[in-house]
Amino acid sequence: MNKKLYEKIKESLTAVLPVTLIVMILCISIAPMPVETLLLFLTGAALLIIGMGLFTLGTDMAMTPIGTKVGTQLTKTKNLGFIVLACFIIGVIVTVAEPDLQVLAGQTPAVPNMVLILTVAVGVGIFLAVAFLRILFNWSLSALLIAGYTILFVIAIFVPKEFLAVAFDSGGVTTGPITVPFILALGLGLTNMRSDSNAEDDSFGLVALCSLGPILAVLILGMIYSASSGDYTPVEMPVINNTRELFLEFGREMPHYAKEVLLALSPICIFFLIFQVLFFKLRKKQMIKICIGLFYTFLGLTLFLTGVNVGFMPAGNYLGGQIASLPYRWILVPIGMLLGYYIVKAEPAVIVLNKQVEEVTGGAISQKTMMLGLSVGMAISVGLAMVRVLTGLSIFLILLPGYAIALLLSFFVPKIFTAIAFDSGGVASGPMTATFLLPFAMGACDTVGGNILMDAFGIVAMVAMTPPITIQILGLLYNKKVKTMKKYQEVEEMEDEIIDYGEEMM
Amino acid sequence: MESYSAHGPIRWLITIVDRGKGEKVAKIYRENHLFIHIAVLGIGTAQSEIMDYLGLDEPEKDIVLTLVPDIMVTRVLQNLDNKMQFYRPGSGVAFTIPLSGISAAASRQAEEGTIHIVVDREVSKVEKKQQYDLVTAVVDRGQIDLVMDAAKAAGATGGTIIRARGIDSKEAEKFLKITIQPEKEIVVIIAAHEQKQTIMKGICNQILSLTGERGIVFSIPIEDVTGLRSHIDN
What we know:
The structure holds two protein chains of two kinds. Helices cover 80% and strands 1% of the residues of chain A.
C-alpha cells in the first residue's frame, strides 16, 4: 500500500478511535444511550476519520505552503508599512470568514452581530500585526503576553460576570482549524530564511497573540453594551426512525458546513492568488498541487464538521446529562478528564501544530511529547470544567491563577516552549471542544440544575488555559534534562587529541 | 594511539528511513553498542507524478548519522537489514563514508562495541566492489522537483531532500532585528559509479537553464550501500 496513505489512515484512526471507544464503553455501562444517538455518533466518527485524513493531507499540500510562502514573501519585501498593513488585513479577513465567529455572535445577543464580528476581526488583525512586529523588533513574547493578560483581567473586573465565560471562550473559538494552520505557517515562513539565534523561537507565538484579540474585543464590547447575559441554542436531539433518515440527517447538514468551510477558505485562496500574481509566480505543477490540496482541505473539513456537529453534539449532550444524573455524579470529573485526554488527539489543528513543532525543532520536541503535554493539559481543564459544573465555582477563580502560573513559568523555560505553549492554547480549543465537550458540559449542567451560561460555558477558555501550563512544564523538564546531560559531560575528563586516518587510508 | 588503529578506522554510517523509524534504527545501533547518533529531518523525493499531484508521495524521512568502527559495519548493517526489512524495496537505505580523522573521545566511544563482539570485516570487502557515489546538489528552494526530473532523466531513482538556508554573509540581509538568508535545499542521490557523471551533468544543465547560474553539485564516495532498489535487484 502507498506509504503516505497508510500513514494518514493510521494518523486519523489513532486520533478518532480512542474517543469513540470511550463513548462506546460509557454507553454500554453507566450511561445508556438511545440507539439512534449512538448510530449518529458512530456515523459521525466514520466521517471524522475520513475528514481528518483529508484535512491534514490538504494542510500539508496547500495551507502550510501558502502560509509559509506568504510569510517569507512579506519579510522579503522589507517594507515595514506593507508588512503591518498586510498582516492586519490578513488577520481581519481570515477572522471574518471564520464560521465559529457567527456562533459567538449568536451567543452575545446584547451586542449587534455586525459590531461584534468586526470588532473581533479588528482585534485579531491588530494582534497579528503586533505579533509580526514583535519578531522584527525582537520584543519579548512573555512580556507582551503578561501585558496582554493583565489588561484582560483588569477589564474583566468591570464586565458582568454572566458575560465572562462567553468572552474568554471567544479566544479559543475564533482560532479555528483554518486560521490556525495558516497563521502557524506564516510564522514558519518568517523563520525559514533567518539565521539569527532567535529564529527557531520566533516561529511560534503568532497564534498566542492572536487569541488575545477576540477576548479583548468581546470584553470591551461587553463593558460598553453592559451585556448582562449571553445566549445559547440548546442542543436538539434529532429523531431518527430508520437508517435512511440517519443518512438523510447527515446529508441535510452537509451543504451547510460545506458553505461555511468554503467561506472560511476563500480569503486564503484570494490572498494566495494575489501573491501568486504579484510575487510567487509558481509553476503549473506547484499550482496544481496546491489546488488539489485546497480541495482536500475543503472536503476534509466539511466531512469533519458535519461529523462532529451531527454525530458528536447530541451524543456529548446526552452523555453529560446521563452521567450527571447518576447518584455518584462526582464521576463526571474523572470521566471528563479521560475524555479530555483522548479528545485532544482528534482536534485537527493539533496534528498540524505538533508536526510543525517537530519540524522546526529538528525532532528535539517530538510529536509524541507534544501530544502528551496537550493530553494532560486537556484532561486537567475538562476536569476543572466539570468541577465548575458541579459546584458553580467562578471562572475568574480558575483563570486568574491559571494564567498567573502560565506567565510565571515563562521566566523559567526556554523561549521556544513559551511560544509553543501559548500557541497550543488556541490550537487545542477547536471544533471538538466546541461540539463535544461544550455540549457535554451543557448536558451535565442542565441535569445538575446549574446556570449553563456561567458554569458550562467557559470550558473552551479552560481548554485554552491549561496547555500553556503543561507544555511549559515539559519545557522545564527538558531544560533540567539538558543540564544534567551537560554536567555528565563536564565530569568526564576530555582528551582533545585528534586521530588522523589520512595516511593509512591512502 | 596504537590501541585505536588496531581496530581500524571509524566510519560515518548514514541511514535514511521513513519519518518516525529513526528511533528504531538508533535502538538497533545501540544494541550493537553504537552510541553516537544524530538525527536530521529529510524529505523523500517524489516517485510518481500522479501520486505527487494527489499528495500521496514525498514521504518524510529521518536521517540518522552514526559513528561506527570499520570492522563492525557488516555486522551492524546485516542486523539492520534483518530487523528493518531493508531487503524490501523502499524501506530505507544505509551507507558509510570513511572518515579521515576523529577526536580521541569520539573514537573511544564509537569503539565501545568492538570489545563485546568478534567481527570479521574481510568478508564484506568483496561486496564493496560495487561502487556508489552520493551525488549532492545545493538548490534554491522551490526548484527541487525540476532538478529531480533532470536527475531522473539521467538515471537517478530517487533522492532525499534536506531543508537548509544559506549562511553567506554577503547574501545575508539585515532587516530590523532579524537576519534574512536565502532559502536552499540540499538533495542527496545515491548513484551507481557509472551513472554519476550523467546525473551530475543533468542536474547542472537543469540549474543553468532555471537560474542562469552554474549549479553547485559534487559527489562523495560511499560504501557499504544497503537497501537500494537497484542494488537489491542485482
